[in-house]
């Protein structure tokens, strides 16, 4: 890991800690535990206040339009999601600790392979955060000019906590993907130097066993990751999809009706921020499945006709393992995060927008026909 990655990881860890996105410290660290509990209490109070504000706004204003009702539902939903994420870090404490232990064990196992393949994940995530910061500045400017969303400023902390939760998910998936790429490169080197007619050596068996155990550890990390973050990812994707459809519809209807520039900018930036986060997360989830398939395709190349039965049995066991233990990022088994699902979601969004626009035109036609001539 280079210095930029190390510095970025330290900064992110501090941000996660202050945003309540990491598990509570052990009881032995009493002062840190008390501080973490105070931070949790502040965040829970903030989300409860936002939840009450959203509910009271819906109950008091009975004559609100569908657009304002949709915005209020999103406001309430994101407040509940914030509470869920806080609860997730508490009730999944053991899974978080096991995931961190397995991650360290995996790092030690991969260091034995004498291979390193680090991508520029810090640069990509920094660029993503930079674009979102610029987008928020533009949205705040547009909102100050036209007062589009009355809760834009008060919900800013909530939005950034969710963004850093996205970054937290993506960074962990990217790290597991890098380990899988390291493993794949080691298998490629082993297969490239594997003359089928060379006699079997004991070091070949030990090396292959290390690779197999590394694959198993990566799979276990994926399973623990899904267990830790599954419910949060499920609710996050549902809310983000709903918000994307709503803002895309408002963007299109604004283009048809009033063509007010500030609302264009606000809704367009909202669609951009949601779409970029969801696309990036699904992209890296799809990369995990691709790495698993590519590793499985390399295993048959390791068979040695002159090798011992023990070695070839290990190759067969490794092959079966890759068939049954796939690297998959799932939201509590409701769906897997991959590009195929993302394309299906995009098709569904387009379908919903077409239906909504047809209803809009039908309503306008009915209103025009009802007017007296």
Automatic annotation (TrEMBL):
Keywords: Cell membrane, Membrane, Receptor, Transducer, Transmembrane, Transmembrane helix. It is found in: Cell membrane. It is a multi-pass membrane protein. PANTHER family: GUSTATORY AND PHEROMONE RECEPTOR 32A-RELATED, INVERTEBRATE GUSTATORY RECEPTOR. It comes from the Eukaryota. Its main location: membrane. GO terms for cellular component: axon; dendrite; neuronal cell body; plasma membrane. GO terms for biological process: chemosensory behavior; male courtship behavior; sensory perception of taste; signal transduction. The chain crosses the membrane at residues 7-24, 30-52, 64-85, 229-252, 261-284, 341-361. The gene is Dmoj\GI17872. The keyword Hydrolase does not apply. InterPro entries: 7TM_chemorcpt. The keyword Aminoacyl-tRNA synthetase does not apply. This is Gustatory receptor. It holds the Pfam family 7tm_7.
């Amino acid at each position: 890991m280079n210095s930029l990655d190390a510095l970025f990881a330290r900064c992110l860890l501090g941000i996660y800690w202050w945003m309540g996105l990491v598990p509570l410290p052990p009881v032995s660290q009493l002062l840190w535990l008390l501080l973490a509990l105070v931070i949790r209490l502040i965040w829970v109070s903030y989300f409860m206040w936002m939840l009450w504000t959203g509910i009271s706004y819906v109950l008091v204003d009975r004559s609100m339009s569908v657009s304002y009702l949709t915005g209020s539902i999103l406001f309430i939903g994101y407040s509940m999601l914030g509470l869920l994420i806080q609860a997730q870090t508490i009730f999944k404490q053991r899974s978080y600790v096991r995931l961190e232990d397995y991650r360290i064990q995996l790092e030690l196992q991969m260091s034995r392979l004498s291979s390193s393949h680090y991508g520029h994940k810090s640069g990509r995530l920094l660029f993503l955060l930079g674009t979102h910061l610029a987008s928020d500045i533009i949205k705040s400017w547009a909102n100050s000019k036209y007062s589009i969303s009355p809760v834009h400023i008060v919900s800013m902390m909530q939005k950034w906590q969710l963004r850093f939760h996205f970054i937290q998910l993506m960074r962990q998936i990217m790290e597991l993907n890098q380990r899988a790429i390291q493993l794949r490169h080691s298998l490629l080197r082993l297969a490239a130097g594997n003359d089928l007619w060379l006699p079997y050596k004991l070091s070949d068996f030990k090396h292959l066993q290390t690779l197999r155990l590394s694959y198993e550890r990566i799979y276990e990390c994926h399973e623990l990751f899904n267990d830790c973050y599954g419910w949060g990812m499920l609710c996050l994707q549902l809310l983000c999809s709903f918000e994307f459809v709503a803002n895309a519809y408002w963007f299109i209807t604004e283009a048809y009706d009033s063509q007010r520039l500030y609302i264009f900018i606000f809704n367009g930036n909202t669609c951009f921020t949601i779409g970029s986060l969801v696309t990036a997360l699904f992209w890296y989830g799809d990369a995990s499945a691709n790495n698993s398939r590519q590793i499985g395709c390399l295993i048959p190349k390791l068979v040695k006709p002159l090798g011992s039965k023990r070695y070839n049995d290990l190759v067969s066991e490794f092959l079966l393992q890759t068939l049954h233990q796939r690297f998959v990022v799932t939201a509590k088994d409701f769906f897997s995060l991959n590009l195929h699902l993302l394309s299906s979601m995009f098709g569904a969004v387009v379908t919903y927008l077409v239906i909504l626009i047809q209803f809009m035109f039908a309503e306008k036609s009915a209103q025009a026909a009802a007017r007296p001539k």
